[in-house]
Fold Cytochrome C biogenesis protein CcmE.
Amino acid sequence: MTKKLRMQIGTFVILGALAYLGFQGAHNFSNYFVTVSQYRHQLRRLAGMDVRVQGTLSAQSVHYNAATSTLRFSLVSNGESLPILYHGAMPNEHFKNASAIVKGEMDSHGVFVAQKLEIQCPDHYAPAPNATTEQ
């Protein structure tokens, strides 16, 4: 095998690997999360996979067990509800009725077991009530 042919094959392999990584990155970025209703409709396809699910945290569904650091709640989206089980610290009271993203997978009992919980608190992004802008 000539040196030129080996160089061409090596270049082809590297370009193929870069194209694959670019495609995977674009695919993962475009699917940052699915809504509760999308998750429910695609449950068979997403079974056994770590998935990010977004919805509104239902305030009346929140139950926290301090002894086991277990938080149970439901995410809702477009009339669909998803029961969530999360082991970790209890967020502050501002998380109720806020938009949330959970990362995890469905267990055999139909409960979504979340390893990660991200709360989006809209009040953090609102201007202060008496704020004035300087010009």
Notes: The chain has two domains: 1-30, 33-122.
